[in-house]
């Protein structure tokens, strides 16, 4: 199971990013645990300078704007 964190204050883009992660994981058959991180101090500690951000298994893979769907699938299938 992949541990995924979606970082953002709760804006529409952040909500869309969270849903994109869940949809891509379901489509690929990848088990994920998705956590939404809205605390700005925690977001900054994670190194996210622009939201939404995504980390997979502790590694920051995306920050700022909606992720590219193909890249998102690559990240979910990696390792």
General description of the model:
The chain has 79 residues and is of the alpha+beta class. The protein has one domain: Glutaredoxin, CATH 3.40.30. 41% of the residues lie in helices and 27% in strands. It contains three helices and four strands. Strand 1, helix 1 (12-28) and strand 2 form a beta-alpha-beta unit. The protein is globular and about 30 Å long. It starts with a strand and ends with a helix.
Main attributes of the structure:
alpha+beta, Glutaredoxin, four-stranded mixed β-sheet, globular
Summarize the structure in short:
The chain is an alpha+beta fold and 79 residues long.
Q: Could you please say which CATH topology applies here?
A: Glutaredoxin
The radius of gyration is 11 Å
Q: Poorly predicted ranges (pLDDT <50, ≥5 residues)?
A: none
Q: Helix segment count?
A: 3
CATH architecture field:
3-Layer(aba) Sandwich
Helix vs. strand class: alpha+beta
The proportion of residues in beta strands is 25-35%
Number of domains: 1
For the sheet with most strands, the description reads:
4 strands, mixed
The count of DSSP E runs of length 2 or more, i.e. the number of strands, is: 4
């Amino acid at each position: 199971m992949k541990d995924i964190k979606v970082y953002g204050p709760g804006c529409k883009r952040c909500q869309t990013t969270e849903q994109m992660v869940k949809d891509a994981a379901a489509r690929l058959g990848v088990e994920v645990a998705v956590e939404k991180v809205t605390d700005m101090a925690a977001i900054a500690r994670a190194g996210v300078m622009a939201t939404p951000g995504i980390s997979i298994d502790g590694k920051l893979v995306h920050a700022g704007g909606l992720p590219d769907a193909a890249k998102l699938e690559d990240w979910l299938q990696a390792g």
